[in-house]
Every structure is written in structure tokens, then in C-alpha cells.
């Protein structure tokens, strides 16, 4: 598909006259209507004006690109107009706009036409191309200018892709994004890359547009770059840029002030992003199969945790408000207030498996993977299977056995890779069907496929889940202590990293199963996660000669972090002295987890630390377990560590 497939002669007006911006918009809407691109002129114009109210679509240098993505668009298309003298479009540089392209995008994710519009937006950033369009005398001449320029750009892009890359990658990275992700996103990326090349630098820009993220920055590029520019009018996740300069501004600045933004990075004037730093060596292996799987898993886990924590804490509050019924079968819902909190908490907590599976699939296959992943997670939760269908028409739900956490994991990965396979199969379909792929073909085929697969796999995962729960519930005290020591110790291996998350997710999965052993494991896990910051706090408080003044001051905050179950409080100290801090914290956490399990402590809440103490089963012994683990860890660390020297 080419730009001129979206722009027809009947959608072009050269040398037009317009009294003002509104008059120009009316004429462009009429051109869209004449091209057969829209079904409702009034609704389309309303969407155009709504976008203008957010931020002017004039980008400066006499160019305006009004656009809307709405149900009133029948098919993707363009309208174009040149207005000698121009009209005031509230451009950032104060100039009148005399070259206008109006974009009509249908609702959905029609990726091909969005990529074409991205190319046009980038081409308009080149002055010679825009001037050639202004000089065109007829619609046919206007179209020829576009065809010639697009062919040249495609050749340049192909040559660039084929050229060997060397060194450590781009000097500077960027992310560009606007609310609609149609035009400004790509114009900002083009201007930043073009200006960097003029300055003798290499800049790579990731575009987060309506077609999804393109030109995605790799972990190795992030590790080796000087800094990152985020030119966006929507939120952009910055966690992956920990330890690097990150300058955040609006997308308009990326279009109009690229040199200024680049110099901010070059001059080290941007703030450094907080978080755990990834080294270049570690980043170089980030694209391995194992790390890709881990990345997809963590995407699911990170989106799942708010549901787990929110639902779990609300459920815990239900027990807190129903202490009078403790020990009875109605405990947690014997009063209206308790039932109110418990019902909300259960609904939120019940979304854990669908969200986990959905966002694993989305990480693999982008947005088309979300629906199949969520459906697969729901089916994993319900345990629906072929045997259930055979009980029609009455349907006996008792034959359904939930596959639990393991089934949801499988559903997420299967749905993601299955959706990618479906996308590849659809690549050979005619261009005319491009617009219905993301809104019809991907969700229907993906959901149907994962549904059929889960009907077959759920009995297997149901048996595994049942066997695991039966084994855990049948554990004696000695085995429970071993489980507590393992999940507690894992919380201190990397303080929020893969081992920590694996332990936490395992225990929340057990908690979701509704068994007593799930609550025992959760209490041991939380005790183990609370120990590391408290170990640091105790050591810096009572063994001052082993720490600098800055360490001692920072150590005080770890009392609060430890009590709040925030293991990450120990990270700065572990990074400075991993050989002493990590082993001692692992020992302390394992002791706390083992003692918590030995005492039979339970927790219906998956988070909260000491602040959910009222709902902890056997709370006094749970606190004793945490104190014991923390004291032992602090003593080992403090006697093992050498005195601090200035």
C-alpha cells in the first residue's frame, strides 16, 4: 500500500482560499466526504475538533495535520489542501499553516494504513518535499510529488536496514508518542533522527503509535546509550531506563526543538532515572529465549500484582471487621460491612489469573494477544473442559477442576504465540482486509483457538493443581518448615528480582487456591521479604563503626520499608557490598520463613507487612519469627563486615 492509495485526486484542493482555521477544516471534511472515506460528516468533524481542543495539530513550518480516529470513518483516507498565505492554526512557531493533510482513521488497529500515514508524517518534516507540494498546480502533480518522494524514502529505508551496524549502537535514544498515535508521533521521531545525523550522532527513536510500538529500543542499546529523550503527550513507562539520563517533554518539542533536546542529553543536564541498573554485559544477553520468556512472564506478573494486592488487602479488611465471628464458618462475611469488603476483594483477587495470562499474551503478540490471553486465563480459572460439554444441556460444573496458576501461565504463553501465528497467516490476505484484521480476525480466531486448546488442556492442569495442593496440605510440620525456609530465603536473593518475584508469585498462587497451606506459605514469604531492610536498619543503628554516616542515615528508612514488606530497601546496600549483605539477608529471611511456618502462622493478605498484623494467624509468633531472622542476619552481617574507613 502506498500513500496515494489513501489520497485520491478528488480529495485534493490546490491553491484554495480559506477565511480561517474553521473554514479550512470544513473544506477538508468535505474533501474526505467526496472521497467516500466518512459516513457522518458532523460526527467526523466533531472528532477533528475534539483532537484540536487537546493540542493544535499544526506542527510549524506552515504544516497542519488534523486527524481523528472515529467510528464515523468508513475506510482510512487522506484529504489535502494548499492555501497560499495560510490561516492561523495556533502553530507553535506562530506561522500560518498553508499545507494541510487531514487524516481519517477508522476505529481499530489497521496497522498497514497507520504505517503509511507514519511515512507521510515523517516525509513532511523534509522542507524540500513540503515546498514541492506547495508548488504543485494540479492534484495530479501533487500526487506525483508524493509518489516520487515515497519511492525515494523507501529506497533509503531499505538501504539503511541492509547496512551493517557497528560500535555499541545509537548515541542517544528517544521515545515519541501522542494521544492518537497517528501523525505527531512519527514527525517527532523523524526530526530527532534527522537533527542528530546533522550533528554527527546516531539517534534511534521508538514510536509508540496506534499501530503499536515500532523500532523498539533493546536492552543493549539502552545500556550503551548516553541518554534517552521521551517526547510524548501520554505516559511512557521509564522503568527500563534505570541509571540513565532521561529527559521528558511533550511531542511538540520533539518536532520543533530537536537540537535543544539532544544537547540536554549531551551536556548531562537531564535527571537520572531511579531503579535497578542493567549492565551492558547483562543487556547483551537480553534477547536470549530464556530472557524473552522471563520478560513476558514479568509483564503478566507486574499487571497482575495490583489485583492481587488490592483484592488481598480488601479481603483481609473483611476479616479485620469481623473479628467477632472468628472461628466460625461465617468469619469474614457475617456482617454487612465485612461482606462488602470481602465481595470486592474476592472479585479483584479473582481477576489474578485472567490478567496474568492476558498480559503475558500481550507482551508476546502486542494488543491482538490481549483478548485471547484473558479468555485463556478465565478458562484456566474455571477449569472448563470437554467433560463439562458432555453434560449438556444441564451442564454439571462439578466436573470442572481449576488448573490454577500453572494453567494460566500456559494459557498466556500459548495465546501469545498462537496470535503471532495467526497474524503471520493473515499477512497474505488482500490489503482491502487490512482494517478488519485487528478488530475481527485476530480476536475471533485467537479466542476460538485458545478456547479449544484450554478445553483439552484443563483436565491435565486440573490434575496437576489438585495433586500439588493435596501434597502441600498433607505436609507435616517438618516439611512445612522447609517450604517456609525456601520461600523466605528466596525473597532475599535479589530483593525484587526474578528469585524474589518467583517466590512471591508462587505463594500468591497458593493463596488463591484457598487452602490453609496457601496462607502458611504467604505468611512465611512475607516474613522473609520483611527481613532484609530490617537487617540493614539494625546493623546501621547498633554497629555504627561498620557504616558511613550516609549509610547510617539511609538505614533508618529501612525500618519503615521492612515493616511495609518492601524488600527493595536493601538494594543500595547489597549493590555496594553484595558479598556480605546478600548471604546474611538470605540466612535471616530463611530463618524467619521457617519459624513462621513452624509456628503455623497464616496470612489471608498477600501484602501489607506489619500493617495487616490484625488478620495474621498467630501474630505474636509471626513477629517473633521476623525479629529472630532480622537479629540473626544483622549480627552475622555486623561481625562479618569490616569496620568502615573514610
Q: From the alpha-carbon coordinates, what is the Rg to the nearest angstrom? A: 29 Å
Share of residues in helices: 55-70%
What composes the largest sheet? Answer: 6 strands, mixed
Shape: globular
Strand fraction equals 5-15%
Could you name the ranges where pLDDT drops below 50 across 5 or more consecutive residues?
A: 279-287
Mean of all residue-level pLDDT scores: 84
Distance between the termini: 67 Å
In DSSP terms (H or I, runs of 4 or more residues), the helix count works out at 25
**Helix-strand makeup class:** alpha/beta
Number of domains: 4
Secondary structure: number of strands: 11
What does this structure look like?
The chain has 646 residues and is of the alpha/beta class. It folds into 4 domains: 3-160, Mannitol-specific EII, Chain A, CATH 3.40.930; 164-284, Response regulator (Rossmann fold); 289-469, no CATH class; 477-640, no CATH class. It contains 25 helices and 11 strands. It has helices spanning 3-6, 21-34, 41-54, 111-123, 127-135, 139-162, 184-198, 219-224, 251-256, 258-266, 280-284, 289-320, 336-349, 352-365, 370-382, 386-389, 404-426, 437-473, 477-490, 498-512, 516-542, 549-563, 571-576, 578-598, 619-640, and strands spanning 12-13, 58-60, 63-64, 67-70, 77-87, 97-106, 172-177, 203-209, 212-214, 227-232, 245-249. Strands 1, 2, 3, 4, 5 and 6 form a 6-stranded mixed beta sheet that branches. A 5-stranded mixed beta sheet has the order 9-8-7-10-11. The longest helix is centred in the C-terminal third of the chain and has 37 residues, at 437-473. The radius of gyration is 29 Å and the shape is globular. It starts with a helix and ends in a 6-residue tail after the last helix. The relative contact order is 0.06. Mean pLDDT is 84; it is low at 279-287.
Amino acid at each position: 500500500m502506498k500513500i496515494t492509495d489513501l489520497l485520491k485526486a478528488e480529495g485534493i484542493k490546490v491553491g484554495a482560499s480559506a477565511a480561517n482555521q474553521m473554514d479550512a477544516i470544513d473544506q477538508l471534511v468535505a474533501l474526505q466526504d467526496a472521497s467516500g472515506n466518512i459516513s457522518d460528516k458532523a460526527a467526523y468533524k466533531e472528532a477533528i475538533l475534539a483532537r484540536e481542543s487537546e493540542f493544535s495539530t499544526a506542527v510549524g513550518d506552515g504544516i497542519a495535520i488534523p486527524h481523528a480516529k472515529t467510528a464515523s470513518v468508513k475506510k482510512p483516507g487522506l484529504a489535502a489542501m494548499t492555501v497560499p498565505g495560510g490561516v492561523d492554526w495556533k502553530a507553535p512557531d506562530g506561522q500560518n499553516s498553508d499545507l494541510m493533510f487531514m487524516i481519517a482513521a477508522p476505529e481499530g488497529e489497521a496497522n498497514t494504513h497507520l504505517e503509511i500515514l507514519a511515512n507521510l508524517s515523517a516525509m513532511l518534516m523534509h522542507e524540500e518535499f513540503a515546498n514541492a507540494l506547495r508548488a504543485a498546480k494540479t492534484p495530479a502533480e501533487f500526487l506525483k510529488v508524493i509518489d516520487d518522494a515515497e519511492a525515494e524514502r523507501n529506497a533509503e529505508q531499505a538501504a539503511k536496514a541492509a547496512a551493517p551496524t557497528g560500535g555499541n549502537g545509537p548515541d542517544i535514544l528517544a521515545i515519541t508518542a501522542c494521544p492518537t498515535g497517528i501523525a505527531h508521533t512519527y514527525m517527532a521521531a523523524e526530526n530527532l533522527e534527522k537533527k542528530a545525523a546533522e550533528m554527527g550522532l546516531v539517534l534511534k527513536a521508538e514510536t509508540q503509535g496506534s499501530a503499536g510500538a515500532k523500532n523498539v529500543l533493546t536492552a543493549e542499546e539502552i545500556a550503551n546509550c548516553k541518554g534517552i529523550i521521551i517526547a510524548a503527550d501520554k505516559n511512557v513507562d521509564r522503568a527500563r531506563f534505570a541509571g540513565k539520563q532521561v529527559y521528558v517533554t511533550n511531542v511538540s518539542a520533539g518536532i520543533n526543538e530537536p537540537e535543544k533536546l539532544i544537547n540536554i542529553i549531551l551536556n548531562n543536564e537531564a535527571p537520572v532515572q531511579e531503579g535497578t541498573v542493567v549492565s551492558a554485559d547483562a543487556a547483551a544477553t537480553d534477547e536470549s529465549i530464556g530472557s524473552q520468556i522471563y520478560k513476558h512472564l514479568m509483564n503478566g506478573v507486574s499487571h497482575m500484582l495490583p489485583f492481587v494486592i488490592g483484592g488481598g488487602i480488601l479481603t483481609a479488611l473483611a476479616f479485620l471487621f469481623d473479628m467477632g465471628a472468628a472461628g466460625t464458618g461465617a468469619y469474614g462475611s457475617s456482617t454487612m460491612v465485612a461482606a462488602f469488603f470481602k465481595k470486592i476483594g474476592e472479585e479483584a483477587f479473582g481477576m489474578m489469573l485472567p490478567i496474568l495470562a492476558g498480559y503475558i499474551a500481550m507482551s508476546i503478540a502486542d494488543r491482538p494477544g490481549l483478548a485471547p490471553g484473558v479468555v485463556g486465563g478465565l478458562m484456566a480459572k474455571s477449569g472448563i473442559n470437554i467433560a463439562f460439554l458432555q453434560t449438556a444441556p444441564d451442564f454439571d460444573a462439578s466436573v470442572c477442576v481449576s488448573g490454577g496458576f500453572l494453567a494460566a501461565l500456559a494459557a498466556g504463553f500459548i495465546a501469545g504465540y498462537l496470535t503471532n501465528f495467526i497474524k503471520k497467516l493473515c499477512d497474505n490476505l488482500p490489503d482491502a482486509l487490512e482494517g478488519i484484521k485487528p478488530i475481527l480476525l485476530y480476536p475471533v480466531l485467537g479466542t476460538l483457538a485458545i478456547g479449544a486448546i484450554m478445553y483439552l488442556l484443563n483436565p491435565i492442569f486440573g490434575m496437576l493443581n489438585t495433586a500439588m495442593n493435596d501434597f502441600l496440605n498433607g505436609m507435616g510440620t517438618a516439611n512445612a518448615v522447609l517450604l517456609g525456609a525456601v520461600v523466605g530465603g528466596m525473597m532475599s536473593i535479589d530483593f525484587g528480582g526474578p528469585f524474589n518475584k518467583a517466590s512471591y508469585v508462587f505463594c500468591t498462587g497458593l493463596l488463591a487456591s484457598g487452602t490453609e497451606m496457601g496462607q502458611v506459605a504467604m505468611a512465611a514469604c512475607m516474613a522473609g521479604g520483611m527481613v532484609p531492610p530490617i537487617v540493614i536498619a539494625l546493623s546501621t543503628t547498633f554497629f555504627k563503626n561498620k557504616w558511613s554516616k550516609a549509610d547510617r542515615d539511609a538505614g533508618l528508612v529501612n525500618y519503615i520499608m521492612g515493616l511495609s514488606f518492601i524488600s527493595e530497601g536493601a538494594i543500595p546496600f547489597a549493590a555496594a557490598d553484595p558479598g556480605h549483605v546478600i548471604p546474611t539477608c538470605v540466612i535471616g529471611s530463611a530463618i524467619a520463613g521457617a519459624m513462621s511456618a513452624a509456628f503455623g502462622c497464616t496470612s489471608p493478605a498477600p501484602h501489607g507487612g506489619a500493617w495487616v498484623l490484625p488478620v495474621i494467624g498467630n501474630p505474636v509468633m509471626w513477629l517473633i519469627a521476623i525479629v529472630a531472622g532480622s537479629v540473626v542476619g544483622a549480627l552475622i552481617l555486623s561481625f562479618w563486615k569490616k569496620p568502615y574507613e573514610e
